[in-house]
């Protein structure tokens, strides 16, 4: 009598995700008895810190003993996945901090808000460690479903409800495409596991390269939706604008990080073994994203919508590193960390000058901010300069890394497009700075003040400066990422 092979189940490799999931469950139960959302916020922060500590432990362990895995390479606890977890947890903690007073002020303070944030972050971390297409899909849905609800959190507001419905419908469509792509890939290779797919594609006499590549293209389309890569970006400006700003902040950093964590792992291991036209298609999409994102942002008068198109543009910059495969992995990890800090900071400042219903995010809200609230204006200046790629801030080093990765991999033309569009981006970033210091306000905007948001802005500003001045410490932690990824 034969028995099925024993699958390695190493629960320790799931420790950060389990800690976050348990915290989300406890916070959900707590919400039944305590209607004060602020108490749930503190629980959420504790959970993020505990998950971060467990992630540090795994990071140290696997840097010395080699990458870990569970369920037969279906979940990977390697340097790249754990590094992306750091960024996801950082983005989650900052999103909780900026939500603390904002939700109360806006009349949106419900205790279910924070458990949904934690559930979504758990799904994002599963995506970052996914080693097969089924795990990827599970993580994607766990991450997405709470965000669909959060996008429509402002009940009775047509714009918010429209954002939630649009994100849900288009998100379901994107997930369906990814499922179909996974099915075609399985039909061609006989496996969902990335390592087994690579082995099948590399085997002599492989008979279904076109079917496998078509499946890979559909998987790329599904991930491109979550990453807001053109032309799959149409949802982003409307959903980012309609959702509460705290939710937009979370989506713009955590969802994007998870999407690129999954995309770089597949693009670096699976796609090079498929038909060459797949990577060519990805290159075209990246170029289109750079152009569309920056030119559309140039035309916006609302800062929130401008930041939404800016997020699309930054997906293009991240795409340059994705095209480089394993050589671009450290650039992706570094860039999403920098992007999380400067984007959370920018949205947090926006929340301080907008009214309780998120109306009035136009540039006039920033007029005279340098005189009225100099510290807030200074922080916004740092974030705008960093997003624009001005040295010595984090955004500058991030763009240097992605351009270097693209050029080293032969995508010189795309790197040139990225550099040129970065110059265009300076126009709309400097426009915000101009309003803060050289325009007088036509009316007195609200003076929202929050100690928790101020702390988050301070952390984001400090991180943006330090990451730009001392880029080597975070980049150096990734010195084995390429090796681990290649051996997956």
Explain this structure.
The chain is 75% helix and 1% strand. By secondary structure, it is mainly alpha-helical. The protein has one domain. A two-stranded antiparallel sheet has the order 1-2. Strand 1 and strand 2 form a beta hairpin. Helix 1 packs antiparallel against helix 4 and helix 13 packs antiparallel against helix 16. The longest helix has 32 residues. The two termini are 32 Å apart.
Can you describe this structure in just a few lines?
The chain is mainly alpha-helical and 488 residues long. It contains 20 helices and two strands.
Please supply descriptive tags for the structure shown above.
single chain, 488 residues, mainly alpha, two-stranded antiparallel ribbon, 20 helices, 2 strands, disordered C terminus
Estimate nothing, just give the exact number of structural domains. 1
Question: Helical region count?
Answer: 20
SSE pattern, N- to C-terminal: HHEEHHHHHHHHHHHHHHHHHH
Q: What does the main sheet amount to? A: 2 strands, antiparallel
| Share of residues in helices | over 70%
The tally of beta strands, per DSSP, is 2
What value does the average pLDDT take?
87
Percent of residues in beta strands?
Answer: under 5%
Q: What is the terminal-to-terminal distance?
A: 32 Å
Radius of gyration (CA) equals: 22 Å
Poorly predicted parts: 481-488
Structural class: mainly alpha
């Amino acid at each position: 009598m034969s028995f099925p092979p024993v699958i390695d189940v190493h629960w320790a490799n799931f420790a950060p995700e389990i800690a976050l999931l348990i915290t989300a469950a406890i916070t959900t139960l707590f919400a039944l008895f305590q209607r004060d959302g602020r108490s749930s916020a503190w629980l959420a922060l504790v959970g993020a810190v505990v998950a971060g500590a467990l992630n540090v432990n795994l990071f140290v362990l696997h840097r010395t003993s080699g990458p870990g895995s569970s369920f037969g390479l279906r979940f990977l606890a390697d340097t790249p996945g754990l590094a992306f977890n750091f960024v996801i947890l950082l983005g989650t903690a900052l999103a909780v901090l900026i939500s603390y007073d904002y939700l109360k002020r806006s009349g949106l303070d419900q205790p279910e808000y924070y458990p949904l944030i934690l559930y979504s972050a758990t799904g994002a971390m599963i995506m970052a460690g996914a080693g097969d297409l089924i795990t990827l899909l599970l993580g994607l849905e766990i991450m997405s479903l709470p965000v669909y609800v959060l996008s429509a959190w402002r009940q009775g507001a047509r714009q918010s409800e429209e954002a939630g419905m649009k994100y849900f419908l288009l998100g379901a469509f994107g997930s369906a495409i990814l499922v179909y792509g996974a099915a075609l890939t399985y039909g061609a290779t006989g496996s969902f596991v990335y390592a087994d797919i690579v082995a099948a594609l590399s085997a002599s006499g492989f008979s279904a390269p076109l079917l496998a590549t078509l499946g890979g293209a559909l998987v790329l389309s599904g991930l491109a939706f979550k990453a807001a890569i053109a032309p799959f970006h149409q949802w982003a400006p409307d959903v980012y604008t309609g959702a509460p700003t705290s939710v937009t902040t979370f989506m713009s950093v955590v969802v994007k990080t998870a999407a690129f964590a999954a995309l770089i792992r597949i693009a670096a291991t699976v796609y090079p073994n498929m038909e060459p036209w797949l990577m060519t298609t990805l290159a075209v999409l990246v170029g289109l994203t750079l152009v569309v994102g920056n030119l559309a942002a140039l035309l916006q008068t609302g800062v929130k919508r401008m930041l939404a198109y800016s997020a699309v543009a930054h997906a293009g910059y991240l795409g340059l590193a994705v095209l480089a495969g394993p050589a671009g992995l450290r650039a992706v990890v570094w860039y999403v960390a920098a992007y999380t800090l400067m984007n959370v900071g920018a949205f947090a400042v926006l929340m301080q000058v907008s009214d309780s219903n998120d109306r009035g995010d136009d540039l006039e809200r920033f007029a005279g901010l340098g005189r009225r609230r100099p510290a807030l204006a200074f922080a916004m200046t740092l974030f705008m300069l960093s997003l624009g790629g001005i040295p010595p801030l984090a955004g500058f080093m991030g763009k240097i890394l992605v351009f270097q990765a693209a050029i080293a991999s032969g995508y010189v033309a795309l790197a040139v497009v990225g550099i040129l569009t970065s110059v265009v981006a300076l126009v709309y970033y400097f426009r915000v700075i101009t309003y803060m210091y050289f325009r007088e306000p036509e009316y007195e905007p609200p003076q929202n003040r929050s100690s928790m948001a101020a702390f988050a802005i301070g952390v984001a500003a400090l991180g943006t400066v330090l990451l730009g001045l001392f880029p080597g410490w975070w980049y150096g932690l990734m010195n084995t990422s390429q090796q681990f990824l290649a051996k997956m």
